[in-house]
Amino acid sequence: MTAKPLNRIVYAEDEPDIQEVATLALEVIGEFELKVCNTGQEAVDAVVEYQPDLLLFDVMMPGMDGPTAFQKIRQIPGMETIPVIFMTAKVQPQEVSFYKEIGALEVITKPFDPMTLAQTVRDAWSRQ
Fold first, then answer.
1. CA angle, corner 104, sides to 35 and 21, nearest 5?
2. Which is nearest to 106 in space by CA: 79, 75, 84, 89?
3. Does residue 102 contact residue 70 with C-beta atoms inside 8 Å?
4. Buried b vs exposed e over 72-85: b needs ≥16 C-beta within 10 Å?
5. Rounded CA separation 14/119 (Å)
6. Considering its fold, how many domains does the chain have in total?
7. Residue 112: which H helix or E strand, with range?
8. Helix (H, G, I), strand (E, B) or coil at 10
9. CB 29 within 8 A of CB 117
10. Residue 17 burial (CB < 10 Å; 0-12/13-18/19+)?
């Protein structure tokens, strides 16, 4: 079975500088279509209309964090199998294990390399 191509990503990140660098890396280098959200709740609200192939979420965001937003999205009809990649500076082994247990394809460590971010996302997508 051929995997569905990865085109559309809902990206949630509350830090403007990181958001800008990642957006450029994913849109310009990766040629992905992004729906950029500033909060977990914005991401939850955007998924049904945007119909992303993948979620790329910062772990720590004010209000609703990435893992909580992901779990809420997985409860939406039609979104039960949508994959997620988390980005975080908190990469203790038990934290990474938790993200993987709840369904993360990958955990990308911050700070990330903008030149390789799109390929890291593609590689994780191809392993699912």
1. 40
2. 84
3. yes
4. bbeeeeebeebbbb
5. 22
6. 1
7. none
8. strand
9. yes
10. exposed
Give a yes or no: residue 51 inside a domain. Answer: yes
Phi, psi (rounded to 5 degrees) for 81: -115, 10
Query: pLDDT of 37-81, one tens digit each?
Result: 999 999 999 999 999 999 999 999 999 999 999 999 999 999 999
CATH value at residue 37: 3.40.50.2300
- Tokens at 101, concatenated: 């247990």
The pTM (predicted TM-score) of the whole model is 0.95
Q: State how far the Cα of 90 lies from the Cα of 22, in Å rounded to an integer.
A: 18
- Segment 99-114, tens digit of pLDDT: 999 999 999 999 999 9
